[in-house]
């Protein structure tokens, strides 16, 4: 199922909200509804608070985890815990060195993000040899 965007058929990289076709795709493929999102976010935030997992609790951030697990809150929570742990471990290993390495690549156009999304609504990242 492809998404409908602007006249050229491609969505801009930054979306204010999901298009109607993306909302329909999310409903069909992920069982996402406004009620599922609202209830899932509430349950996920409660688990994060109860288990004291150090992570961001913004709705958009947590929706990534719920969507990736088709709104299964327990599986989404396990993924949030794993993400939080890995982020902590990687920061201890690499610190802020990563930014020093990636910024020159972006500056010299060795890699980048295209200004529009593909027909499925995905962002496109490119790397030059």
From TrEMBL:
<dbReference type="GO" id="GO:0016020">
    <property type="term" value="C:membrane"/>
</dbReference>
<dbReference type="InterPro" id="IPR011074">
    <property type="entry name" value="CRAL/TRIO_N_dom"/>
</dbReference>
<dbReference type="InterPro" id="IPR036273">
    <property type="entry name" value="CRAL/TRIO_N_dom_sf"/>
</dbReference>
<dbReference type="GO" id="GO:1902936">
    <property type="term" value="F:phosphatidylinositol bisphosphate binding"/>
</dbReference>
<feature type="domain" description="CRAL/TRIO N-terminal">
    <location>
        <begin position="58"/>
        <end position="83"/>
    </location>
</feature>
<protein>
    <recommendedName>
        <fullName>CRAL/TRIO N-terminal domain-containing protein</fullName>
    </recommendedName>
</protein>
């Amino acid at each position: 199922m492809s998404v409908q965007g602007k006249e050229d058929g491609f969505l801009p990289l930054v979306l204010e909200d999901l298009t109607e076709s993306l909302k329909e795709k999310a409903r069909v493929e992920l069982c996402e509804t406004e009620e599922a999102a609202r209830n899932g976010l509430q349950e996920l935030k409660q688990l994060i608070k109860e288990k004291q997992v150090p992570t961001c609790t913004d709705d958009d951030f947590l929706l990534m985890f719920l969507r990736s697990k088709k709104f299964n809150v327990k599986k989404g929570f396990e993924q949030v815990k794993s993400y939080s742990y890995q982020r902590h471990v990687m920061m201890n290993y690499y610190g802020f060195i990563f930014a020093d390495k990636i910024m020159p690549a972006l500056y010299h156009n060795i890699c980048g993000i295209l200004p529009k999304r593909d027909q499925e609504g995905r962002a496109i990242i490119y790397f030059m040899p």
